[in-house]
Amino acid sequence: MTLLIGALTIGLILSLLAMGVFVSFRIFSMPDITTDGSITFGAAIAAVMLVHGVNPPLATAAGALGGAVAGAVTGVLHTKFKINALLAGILVMTALYSVNLHVMGRSNVPLMQVRTLASYGETLGEALFGGRTINVLGWAVGSADAAVLLLALGAAVAGGGLLFWFFRTNIGTAMRATGDNPQMIRALGANVEGYIVLGLALSNGLVALSGALLAQYQGFADAQMGIGMIVWGLASVIIGEALTGTRSLGLTIVGAVMGSVVFRLLVAIALRWGLNPNDLKLITALFVFAALVLPSMVAKLKRTRAAGLEPGA
Amino acid sequence: MPANSQPSNSSPAMLSISGIRKTFNPGTVNEVRALRGVDLEIEEGSFVIVLGMNGSGKSTLLNAVAGTFFVDEGTIRLAGKDVTRWPEHRRAQLIGRVFQNPFSGTAPNMSIAENFALAARRGQPRGLGWALAPQLMAPLRERIASLKMGLENRLDNAIGSLSGGQRQALTLLMATWLKPKLLLLDEHTAALDPKSADQVIALSDEVIQRDKLTTLMVTHSMQQAVSLGDRIIMMHRGRVLHDFRGAEKRRLRPEDLLDRFDEVRRREQLDESAAAMLNELYV
Domain containing B40: what range? Predict the structure, then answer.
């Protein structure tokens, strides 16, 4: 049960990462690898500020802001200096690795003895449920764990809600059009380059927020924690699209949250069954590869079959 | 050219182009001198047809005005402002556009309503207001119903699911939702079937007359050229070759225009044979 709660909590925290990847990958069709650096950047900023006694919400917000700045830098490299989007992301991600080490001062910052949003959860758990454990459908669940899960759920709902609201405003609608038809939205007076910078800032801000929350949940920030997170986010977005479809913006965002949780649960189950943790990134990459390639292969297969059935074909 | 072709000084020009030049890929084998010194004054409320053969620079002229690129030389003044160095998105506050390709003017994966919400803030600050505001939806439904295409009940459908003709009609409404100082129509019916093309042309004329829009329209159709507008500009090799207006424009028949084109073509052929002769003699 603790395992399940843990997987759900991490899945919800990483759903903010999935939303960030949704913005760069689905709105701008731009796989933005800055993600790998900005999730760590968010975690590093938040962790160092927490260690220095800054209050947790402020430290978390600062982490998110740092990610937004990193995303804006990628956007400027891409739009102003005309660097290929993927390369711009690689440059910023690489630079962030050094920046993160400087911010943290070493490769790992533990948060065991400091007050974090997770310790808010413990206080909240006691206030809400009283005792040390509560009874959920016959299982004993730590009240702190349950409260932290609720906080993570709140963060995911608030993040998804804000993102949905933003994309229905005039600015957000124009941002979506920037990805859909830049020529059209430029003719309607939108500064396409500006929207790309803003969009990548939003994307990496969400990613870094996710990183700041993750560091507080797991109790440390680590220079290596960002490796492969873009692929993790892609997997979540793709699973989400399979679950809810892409008919509407709201459904897609809900899908990204569900995709993140489902993917984390699948991983937890696989690890429980004895999957070597070292193989995790390999399997995630294979999964995303399959998810990207299979739909078109299936369609092709269907077409060939249909053609084969026609007489004389 | 007849005397009445002189611009009257009483009404100030809405669009004033002087001496614009544009060369693409200068200094390479692909060098194209697309505009070689164009001067043009267009009065407010004037509906100008731009004719010309392929490569004559008529689309380049429209794109120069729209700001797709900056001209190498010359100035462009629109509604009293020097817009020569304005980027494309800034000029959009003065200009409404419909492109040749029906896919160009709309965001395919967004709904009809959202596309109009974007157009309703053309060239204005966008802010964090709700895009599909009720005060937009009511007039939008009414206006789209007036097209009689049955689209008023499909405002939430993706615009990419519509036919080319429907998309061009909607793009035209979007371009003119906020009255533009200048409307640019770049062969906007060339990619449509004849019936849709007629519908879109009728709608264009209706909107232009109703709002008295200053318009530049590029077309290949002589029929459209003689039946629409109050002035015809014929482009050739990056320059304005003929400028018909007033009574002269009204008297023009498609055959007259074809004659002018033939004249140009004969001259071209002459040039070509001359070039071939020079080649033989000296190369």
Answer: 10-104+164-252
